[in-house]
């Protein structure tokens, strides 16, 4: 077993523990399980200062454009998100033509490299075996999660009938930096490799069963990722099985009916948070008075009047509809694995299998903590129950970067966006994402294409738009 971890840029490790002080500028030598734990948590985890794929929600039907000619001193950030909002072939380019780099590919593959180091080298570290096993469980989870996000960003939508031919993503199991080229696996192979890591993670975390804070990966988080993974794969029995496991660990729901319009949902008081991570600052939403991408009025109006989520998940900020789930001072990170998703995953899987009563049981249970006054559910057919579950999922998980992935794996519907190309003349252009459009898959980032031109890319159609005003 190799005993050295080679990393080219020492600044990567600046947030880790004291053991790094003994290292030279181009290598570190972790000695104990604690050292590796600090290494993984400091560099492998998606931390509160990690902001990635902030464009996901602006590609959906949950947002619209805001464009004002005043106040002139305020920023207009619409140009940064133009390529995503209007589903352009190369969405990283701003309206001006300047590059707005998509850092998701680089971020996730760098986290994978850290996980690879722990998986490959931890065996020789000093420490008890159960601590090693638990840390390995976290590392396998992180690798599975990163690949899962990558395949849903840059891989084609999963369909069982075409998965063995559809484009997936490259996989790297090296633990050191090497200059080499990679090839894209098929979508079926990609899911197979992710599943292997996920199952290994669950086995290890179940065996140790350590009690942890919401900032460290636990078996509950692994169960929820598995439930999500199998739901996306349309393996509904497995999605239900793992949702059941999540709710065995934690079945609590936050009674948001007790919250005021000033309160946030993502706080340390929220009992349904299983794992919290990442940065909630969504740059293209409600961030500028002159031009931005606020919550769609049509989406806002689709909430029932008695639904407390209408005032807690979305907030009115001087006439602008902004996302209101989290803030920097709430004591938790911006994104979270929550028990609410487990209920929704199980409800959707049961609805797809025709178990409509079980699906409605979960929806009714969730709504007890969301609706000010009970609103009876009247649907009964399989088709109507599926639509109800999808609607509840949209309301509950809005602006947590689920909607784009849900649209991809469901029916990839037609969406229209209006973009003001010239605020001085108020010229508005309609852009359309067609049903089953190739633009439901992101192209490789520009920097990736330049580095490895052999990687096959998604050819998204040109989209010029139609002037409507």
Automatic annotation (TrEMBL):
Family recorded in the similarity comment: Belongs to the SusD family.
Protein name: Tetratricopeptide (TPR) repeat protein
Subcellular location(s) per record: Cell outer membrane
Primary site of residence: membrane
Domain SusD-like N-terminal span(s) in chain numbering: 86-231
Entry-linked PROSITE patterns: PROKAR_LIPOPROTEIN (PS51257)
Database matches in CDD domains: SusD
Domain of life: Bacteria
Keyword vocabulary terms for this entry: Cell outer membrane, Membrane, Signal
Source lineage: Bacteria, Pseudomonadati, Bacteroidota, Bacteroidia, Bacteroidales
Keyword NAD recorded: no
Membrane keyword on record: yes
GO cellular component assignments: cell outer membrane
Domain RagB/SusD: 334-427
InterPro entries for the chain: SusD-like_N, SusD_RagB_dom, TPR-like_helical_dom_sf
């Amino acid at each position: 077993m190799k005993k050295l971890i080679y990393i080219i840029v020492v600044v990567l490790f600046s947030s880790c523990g004291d053991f790094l002080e003994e290292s030279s500028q181009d290598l570190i030598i972790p000695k104990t399980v604690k050292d590796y734990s600090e290494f993984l948590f400091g560099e492998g985890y998606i931390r509160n200062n990690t902001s990635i794929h902030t464009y996901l929600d602006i590609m959906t039907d949950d947002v619209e454009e805001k464009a004002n000619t005043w106040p002139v001193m305020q920023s207009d950030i619409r140009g940064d998100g133009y390529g995503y909002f209007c589903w352009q072939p190369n969405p990283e380019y701003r309206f001006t033509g300047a590059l707005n780099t998509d850092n998701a590919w680089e971020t996730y593959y760098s986290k994978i490299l850290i996980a690879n180091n722990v998986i490959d080298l931890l065996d020789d570290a000093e420490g008890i075996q159960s601590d090693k096993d638990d840390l390995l469980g976290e590392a396998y989870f992180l690798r599975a999660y990163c690949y899962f996000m990558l395949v849903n960003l840059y891989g084609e939508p999963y369909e069982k009938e075409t998965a063995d031919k559809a484009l997936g993503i490259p996989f790297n199991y090296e633990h050191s930096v090497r200059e080499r080229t990679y090839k894209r696996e098929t979508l079926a192979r990609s899911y197979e490799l992710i599943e292997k890591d996920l199952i290994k993670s669950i086995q290890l975390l179940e065996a140790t069963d350590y009690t942890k804070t919401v900032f460290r990966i636990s078996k509950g988080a692994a169960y929820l990722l598995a439930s999500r993974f199998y739901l996306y794969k349309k393996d509904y029995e497995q999605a239900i099985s793992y949702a059941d496991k999540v709710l065995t660990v934690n079945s609590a729901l936050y009674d948001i009916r007790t919250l005021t319009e000033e309160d946030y949902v993502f706080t340390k008081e929220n009992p349904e948070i299983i794992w919290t991570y990442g940065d909630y600052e969504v740059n293209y939403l409600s961030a500028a008075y002159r031009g931005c991408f606020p919550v769609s009025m049509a989406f806002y109006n689709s909430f029932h009047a008695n639904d407390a989520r209408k005032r807690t998940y979305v907030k009115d900020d001087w006439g602008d509809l902004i996302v209101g789930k989290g803030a920097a001072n709430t004591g938790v990170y911006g994104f979270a694995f929550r028990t609410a998703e487990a209920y929704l995953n199980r409800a959707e899987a049961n609805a797809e299998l025709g178990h409509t009563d079980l699906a409605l049981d979960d929806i009714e249970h969730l709504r007890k903590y969301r609706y000010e006054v009970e609103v009876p559910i009247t649907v009964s057919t399989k088709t109507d129950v599926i639509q109800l579950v999808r609607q509840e999922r949209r309301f509950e998980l809005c602006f947590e970067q689920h909607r784009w992935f849900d649209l991809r794996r469901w029916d990839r519907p037609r969406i229209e966006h209006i973009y003001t190309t010239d605020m001085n003349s108020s010229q508005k252009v309609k852009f359309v994402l067609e049903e089953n459009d190739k633009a439901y898959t992101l192209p490789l980032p520009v920097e990736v294409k330049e580095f490895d031109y052999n990687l096959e890319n998604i050819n998204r159609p040109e989209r010029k738009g139609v002037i409507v005003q």
